[in-house]
């Protein structure tokens, strides 16, 4: 471990300088969700590709229904049915109408669509409330329909290209593909797309005292929460995450486990074993990584001017120089460290231009002044009220208080220069939601 005390900003800058975005690959649409587009996508065909009806009703010529009223309806001859997906469309001539469904192409000769509610639905009675399905009403495609109201040209018609025109930019490079973007790609006929894949992040917790949830908790043992929290945080950041249950405090076992995991990792995250205790196994296992027997990297263990999260490790491991971040073992320390250092690394691997959580300024709402260690940037759990522009601390400053973390939606940032912060002081907050 170097004797230098690193600032939060310098440590993060060092990490990001070493991260290279993953190489682009071509993926099928379902697999591309959450990935970042690496090319502009243009529209090959207009959407919608043809004039179509926005209503269930009757396709008509405007002159044939001019002046129509309930007392004096226009009586038109029905020449056929037009359903969505129809081919071989009937031509609507003078005095004629075609029964048409929502989304169906406007047949030749028709200029507008009369909603079914403005007609008798072909029943010869009063105003229709609904269009009967063609299978139940084969006669509805012939006979007569009474139209009770006039329409203007193009009424209830969605024009070809009214959504997007051929040649338009559909999605720009750098777009994260969520459900609406996947839908647009499918709508314009793209089955595959070129993206940076979601990074594969392996989360590994260490400690002989750790027991997996669901197992019996014997004396002196605690449940492993870190691997679950950080694997979930990695997924939330956009990664594919793999959780490795607790590894015992044995350097050789840990080193072998890490080397086994390299095959499926774009980023490795360990938690625990990075401090200065006799059993700080991560440091023992990884301090020599980069020696002749393990080519391709080295891990630097550091002290940071922050609370919680002072001990940190960062470097690369294995033949592919896979980045590894070693986080402290206390639950709050590990989660805060993840938010500050691992999440930006994941976002950088994805090729995102902005890797940081959103931040805000808020007025501290507290019963008394908050103390903070000199020369350290303190991160407190808090609840942010956007409307009031205020933030309230949740729980104490202890790095083991995980219950408070579950009720927080932000981190309150107390600068290195402040040793006491009075209520009413404006502070920066990192928004976690």
Q: Brief description of this entry?
A:
This protein has helices spanning 8-18, 29-32, 62-65, 179-187, 226-236, 251-261, 281-286, 331-349, 402-406; strands at 5-6, 25-28, 36-37, 41-42, 52-53, 57-60, 74-82, 96-100, 112-115, 144-147, 157-158, 169-171, 192-196, 200-206, 210-211, 222-223, 240-247, 267-271, 298-304, 306-307, 311-317, 322-327, 359-364, 370-371, 377-385, 390-393, 410-414, 420-421, 426-431. Helix content is 18%, strand content 30%.
Structure description:
This protein has nine helices and 29 strands. The chain is α/β, with parallel strands linked by helices. It has a seven-stranded mixed beta sheet, sandwiched between helices. A five-stranded mixed beta sheet has the order 9-6-8-7-10. Helix 1 packs parallel to helix 8 and helix 5 runs parallel beside helix 8. The two termini are 34 Å apart.
Any chance you could write out the topology, listing elements then pairs?
Layout: E1 5-6, H1 8-18, E2 25-28, H2 29-32, E3 36-37, E4 41-42, E5 52-53, E6 57-60, H3 62-65, E7 74-82, E8 96-100, E9 112-115, E10 144-147, E11 157-158, E12 169-171, H4 179-187, E13 192-196, E14 200-206, E15 210-211, E16 222-223, H5 226-236, E17 240-247, H6 251-261, E18 267-271, H7 281-286, E19 298-304, E20 306-307, E21 311-317, E22 322-327, H8 331-349, E23 359-364, E24 370-371, E25 377-385, E26 390-393, H9 402-406, E27 410-414, E28 420-421, E29 426-431
Parallel strand pairs: 1-19, 7-8, 14-17, 14-18, 15-16, 18-22, 20-25, 23-26
Antiparallel strand pairs: 2-13, 3-13, 4-12, 5-11, 6-8, 6-9, 7-10, 19-21, 21-22, 23-29, 24-28, 25-26, 25-27, 27-29
Helix pairs in contact: 1-8, 5-8
């Amino acid at each position: 471990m170097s004797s230098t005390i690193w600032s939060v900003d310098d440590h993060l800058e060092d990490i990001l300088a070493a991260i290279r975005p993953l190489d682009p690959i071509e993926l099928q649409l379902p697999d591309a969700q959450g990935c970042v587009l690496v090319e502009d996508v243009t529209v090959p065909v207009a959407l919608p590709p043809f004039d179509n009806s926005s209503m269930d009703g009757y396709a008509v010529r405007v002159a044939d229904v001019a002046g129509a009223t309930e007392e004096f309806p226009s009586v038109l001859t029905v020449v056929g049915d037009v359903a969505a997906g129809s081919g071989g469309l009937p031509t609507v001539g003078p005095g004629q109408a075609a029964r048409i469904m929502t989304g169906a192409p406007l047949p030749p000769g028709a200029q507008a669509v009369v909603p079914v509610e403005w007609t008798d639905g072909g029943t010869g009675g009063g105003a229709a409330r609904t269009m009967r399905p063609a299978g139940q009403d084969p006669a509805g495609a012939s006979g007569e329909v009474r139209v009770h109201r006039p329409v203007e040209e193009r009424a209830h018609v969605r024009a070809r290209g009214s959504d997007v025109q051929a040649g338009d930019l559909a999605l720009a490079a750098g777009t994260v593909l969520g459900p609406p973007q996947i839908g647009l790609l499918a709508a314009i006929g793209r089955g595959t797309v070129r993206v940076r894949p979601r990074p594969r992040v392996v989360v590994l917790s260490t400690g002989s005292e750790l027991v997996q949830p669901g197992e019996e908790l014997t004396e002196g043992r605690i449940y492993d929460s870190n691997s679950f929290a950080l694997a979930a945080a990695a997924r939330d950041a956009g990664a594919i995450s793999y959780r490795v249950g607790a590894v015992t405090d044995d350097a050789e076992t840990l080193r072998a486990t890490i080397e086994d995991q390299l095959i499926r990792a774009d980023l490795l995250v360990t938690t625990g074993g990075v401090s200065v205790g006799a059993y700080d196994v991560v440091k023992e296992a990884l301090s020599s990584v980069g020696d002749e027997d393990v080519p391709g990297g080295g891990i630097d263990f550091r002290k940071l001017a922050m609370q919680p999260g002072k001990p940190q490790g960062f470097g690369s491991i294995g033949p592919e120089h896979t980045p590894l971040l070693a986080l402290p073992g206390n639950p709050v320390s590990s989660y805060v460290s993840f938010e500050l250092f691992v999440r930006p690394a994941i976002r950088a691997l994805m090729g995102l231009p902005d890797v940081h959580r959103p931040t805000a300024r808020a007025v501290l709402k507290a019963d008394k002044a908050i103390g903070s260690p000199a020369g350290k940037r303190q991160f407190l759990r808090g609840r942010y009220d956007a409307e009031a522009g205020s933030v309230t601390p949740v729980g104490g400053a202890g790095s083991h208080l995980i219950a408070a973390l579950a009720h927080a939606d932000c981190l309150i940032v107390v600068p290195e220069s402040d040793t006491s912060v009075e209520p009413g002081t404006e502070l920066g907050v990192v928004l976690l939601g």
